[in-house]
Amino acid sequence: MNKKTIFLIHILFWILYVLVPELPYIFPDRKYPVWLFHYNITTEILNIVNFYLVYSIITVNLFHRQRITSSLFIVLAIILVYTGVRLLITRAVSMYISGLEELASLRFVTIMVEFVNSMLFSTFAVLMKFMIDWFSTQKIKTELMAQKQNSELALLRTQINPHFLFNTLNNLYSLVYKKSEEAPSVVMKLAEIMRYMLYDANAEKVMLEKEISYLQSFIELQQLRLKTHNFISLDIRGDVNGKLIPPMLLIPFVENAFKHGKKDVTPPGIMISLSVEGNSLEFTISNYCSTNPGSPKDSYQGIGLQNVARRLQLMYPDKHQLTITPCGDKFQVTLHISTL
What we know:
The structure is a single chain. The chain has 340 residues and is of the alpha+beta class. The protein folds into two domains: 3-140, no CATH class; 180-337, Histidine kinase-like ATPase, C-terminal domain (Heat Shock Protein 90, 2-Layer Sandwich). Helices cover 60% and strands 12% of the residues. The protein is built from eight helices and seven strands, in the order αααααβαββαββαββ. It has helices at 3-26, 34-57, 68-96, 108-177, 183-199, 208-223, 251-260, 303-315; strands at 206-207, 232-237, 244-245, 270-277, 280-288, 320-325, 330-337. It has a five-stranded mixed sheet with strand order 2-4-5-7-6, covered by helices on one side. Strand 6 and strand 7 form a beta hairpin. The two termini are 31 Å apart. The model is unreliable at 293-299 (pLDDT under 50).
């Protein structure tokens, strides 16, 4: 909570609890004697000093559970001591300013009035300090949580990028080694992809059409190393313009399909579908499993899918559904984002 807000809270408090009740006494006339004006002004000044004396001493740490008893004694001691101070000052004002010695007499009712006033404004001070400190603490916690999430998302993106680059360079090395005429086009595709990774992937979100273009470039680059043409089918439906999505969110699913999918099958071996309806997105990818049923589980859910699942939790809490079908004949991933 910033200083301006805290200042306004204090001003509002004193308007409600001091200024408004005392308005009839500010300009005394025949109805309100001068001694009453003196008494009220003195009392309100004492209330303000009482309030800020407690307010300046009390802190959230002071009222830690393990120190609650000692903290209560501190507040009670302040109330008792300040009650005595209030009695001395109000009696002095009554005698030497108002000139009414009968008002300065020490009676039980007078003591109780000053004690209740001191206790009341001490309680107000504690409650206000706790309220302001609580809101300030919650704001700090929220900011720290946001920073933590941003740092975690940045870390997850850095884990994805080297993984993709490593796979692409291996493919490029293979083409160069074979002196393939397709190597220059691969270099161009790689340059486009690297440009996207360097300049766009650092943003929190990018345009969906950019992510799709990046996905298409990646698929074309991977298709070059496959002997079977049209091995990957990509079906895009709906209006993708103007929609935003976290960068490189979909690519780990495609990487996973290329890495673990069975290659010696009738095309299409990898089937990708992306559908946009309103602000919702449905993404499905499936590939034939390269392991036999009943064999040890392959690394189908490696670091790439773990990372994207964590990013979805951070970016779309309660607004997405990720379904991973265990590998039987096919391995399939379905992602539904309800609000882009």
